[in-house]
Design a protein that fits this description.
By secondary structure, this protein is mostly beta strands. It folds into four domains: about 100 residues, Baseplate protein-like domain - beta roll fold (Phage tail proteins - horseshoe like beta roll fold, Roll), CATH 2.30.300; about 100 residues; about 90 residues; about 60 residues, Phage tail proteins - 2 layer sandwich fold. It is built from five helices and 23 strands. β6 and β7 form a beta hairpin. It is globular.
Length: about 375
Amino acid sequence: MAAEYFYVVADLRNDNILGEIPVEGVSFDTILNSAGNFQGATHLDNRMLDNDTLIDITPPGRTSLFIYKESEIVWGGIIWARWYQSQGKSLQFSAQTFESYAYRRVRRPLVPQIYTLKQTEIIDAMWGDMQTLNPYSSIGVGNPGWAAGSDVVRTVTLNPWDLRTYGETFDEITGYDNGCDYRIRVYEDNGVPIKYLDLMYPRLGSGSITTTHNVLDYPGNIKNYYYTENASEGNTKYFAAGDGDGKGKVIGTAEDTAKMVSGYPRLDKVISVQGVSILASATRKAQAALLKGPVPQEKWQFEISGSDAPVFGSYTLGDSFQVNIEDPRFPSGRQTTIRVVGWTVSPPTSNSTEEISLILEEQENV
């Protein structure tokens, strides 16, 4: 039997439940350390809600959307836009996960603000500042308690003239090769959706592969896969350009000498790392770019059924899987360890089954 999905809306600032809405044509995704997206539509003159109520409880910019799979919340975010098409009486919505709020808020201190803390502590402190320093700023993201552990201490300076969003600063921190992970996790407690900040160094999720829960096979529970090798996107040397001008500009570098010795040419890429004023930090940015953008870049995409093991909802962002493939492309077999950093979900309809496309990070040949 196909899983049932429900769509509930609430007031963004006080979490008061406004009601359930009928939605169709749904697709949503979740991305670690970034904002996931939602697309869906409903219709006026539907059987669940009268038109005035449907419009009144879904205003963009002040409404939360929570997606339930059976009794569990599997996605939560902010409705940012809706548009109406008269001929079909269609009311379409787009939304993003609660991480998107950080990209709509600018941190402008009166004097330079310096955070010298562990990375997870900086993100935690800034989410607190974002929701408390100015009126009408809280969207109810809490922190249930966690330990920073052996996290890296980093110094982040925010100047009044930088006009950087909180989200840009979070991108800077998580973009280091020894950065941390974060997301806004959503669950229900006594009928109320709860949003809280989930932080971990070095990575969220389970890095171990100990059970069949963490194994994907083709043929098997992988229905279809795409494998791309792209040398136009990867590089063998990265320059990370930080703050400063002229001779004083901070520039970190990292190169893949082994790849060039093996036969690849020198391929350069310059990335901008605004707000980085220390050479060692710029170098770590370049090293992170090299890890994420080798040449050629291998990209995998796996399509699985949400009803087959592993069932959607039984794994979490950051979990690692062992993948076993044997087919004409890999006749001798290919084993790869992948880390899931996101997913795209198409809930079931009367004519289709639930489909999950896994968004992957790095791969390691076994």
